[in-house]
Specification:
The chain is of the alpha/beta class and about 270 residues long. It is about 35% helix and about 15% strand. About 20% of the residues have low confidence.
């Protein structure tokens, strides 16, 4: 599988792809510290900087899976929650990349707050946009605690697979369901993502998690990547100048172990299709 990542950070998706034995074709990250880490560990991958200035059509048909943790700050409960008014609302840029690349698979990640921000407006938008481009989409609420991490880190993951129509249809064209039907379907999905799912995957799993491989990871801020599932070697090129950037990067990173489980499921599906 050939993988490309957007909003790559310090390479959580790229690391999971590497664990799968997939080829990392390109990454895209504007932050200097993130680019330094990405270039150090994946020097053969094409490195893009500002997603808003990149024409991705050169990758059309050559990327099997496109991933992106599009910026979560506009929807995070820890922020101002300005949503689409926030300049960091970059889902439209990820959608443009999808249109230009036309990958078989798309995996997007964001904070749980995306589900209820402004009545689920952007949660619906992401799915409607992907469906309009010829993808079948399923959102999942997957906490890191579900893989025995010693913290919750609830995240929404969008997994989308091309239904084969995106090569024949112009961007935005859709013929299958009315707008009311799509909205009702998205509402039902949103209602199914209840706090009980998170509660069942928190305290008991956190306790058990301290007995497994997560226990060896330190929790002090300077080395907090362990709690996020990222080996300390991932930013092994860090020096004192980058300490604050390193901590911020860990906070923004995806948990690659969760992405790995999604990738394994995709790989199993692909094997059945052959």
């Amino acid at each position: 599988m050939r993988h490309g990542s957007l909003f790559s950070g310090i390479g959580g998706f790229d690391l999971a792809a590497e664990w799968m034995g997939w080829e990392n074709i390109f990454h895209c990250e504007w932050n200097p510290f993130g680019r330094r880490v990405l270039h150090h560990y994946w020097p053969k991958a094409i490195s893009y900087e500002d997603v808003t200035n990149i024409d991705f059509r050169c990758h059309r048909g050559s990327i099997d899976i496109l991933t992106g943790g599009f910026p979560c700050q506009p929807y995070s409960s820890a922020g101002k929650r300005r949503g689409k008014e926030d300049e960091r609302h970059l889902w439209p840029e990820m959608l443009r990349a999808i249109r230009e690349i036309k990958p078989q698979w798309v995996v997007g990640e964001n904070v749980r707050g995306l589900v209820n921000w402004n009545g689920g407006l952007v949660f619906d938008e992401v799915q409607l946009d992907l469906e309009a481009e010829g993808y079948e989409v399923q959102p999942f609420l997957l906490p890191a605690a579900g893989l025995n991490a010693p913290h919750r880190r609830n995240r929404i993951w969008f997994v989308a697979h091309s239904n084969g129509s995106n090569d024949r249809r112009e961007p935005g064209e859709d013929e299958s369901k009315s707008g009311e039907e799509w909205v009702q379907e998205r509402h039902e999905v949103r209602q199914s993502i209840e706090p009980s799912e998170v509660r069942n995957a928190t305290n008991s799993r956190i306790d058990r998690g301290r007995e497994n491989q997560w226990e060896k990871f330190p929790t002090k801020p300077a080395l907090c990547g362990g709690d996020d599932g990222l080996p300390r070697e991932l930013d092994g090129i860090t020096f004192s100048k980058w300490r604050n950037e390193s901590i911020k990067a860990y906070g923004n990173a995806i948990v690659p172990q969760v992405a790995l489980q999604i990738f394994k499921a995709i790989s199993q599906y692909e094997a059945k299709e052959v």
